[in-house]
Design a protein that fits this description.
single chain, mainly alpha, 2 helices, 95% helix, rod-shaped
Length: 124
């Protein structure tokens, strides 16, 4: 019976030693996993921040591009209106000069030559 008790005590000590070793291994694995999770979370947050920054930069760039397009459109519209007004003035002036110079063909030829030069300069 004493041997059986001794044997049982020995088994209990062996079991206790294995339990301590397993607990140490468990804590080591748990610490390793927690560190990996913290690193993953940190990487995720940095990545999320960079994505938000990139999205914001793209939106700002898009707004600047739209503003530039609107400005260019307004400028081209103003130039078109100015050119159209000048053409209308030139046509009106030409009609008036032609009416006034019906009796003088040399004035009409002079006006046509001047008008042609104005058109060539404005296209250049």
């Amino acid at each position: 019976m004493k041997e059986q008790i001794k044997s049982t005590e020995q088994e209990l000590e062996n079991y206790s030693a294995r339990m301590k070793a397993m607990e140490a291994k468990f804590h080591h694995c748990k610490e390793h996993l927690n560190a990996a999770l913290e690193e993953q979370q940190s990487l995720y947050l940095r990545s999320k921040e960079q994505c938000q920054k990139a999205i914001q930069e793209i939106r700002q760039s898009e707004e600047a591009h739209k503003a530039s397009i609107q400005e260019n459109k307004a400028n081209s519209e103003a130039l078109r209106e100015d050119f159209s007004r000048k053409v209308q003035q030139t046509i009106a002036q030409g009609k008036l000069e032609v009416q006034q110079s019906r009796h003088s063909p040399s004035k009409a030829r002079s006006w046509i030559a001047n008008y042609s030069q104005c058109v060539i300069k404005s296209n250049a």
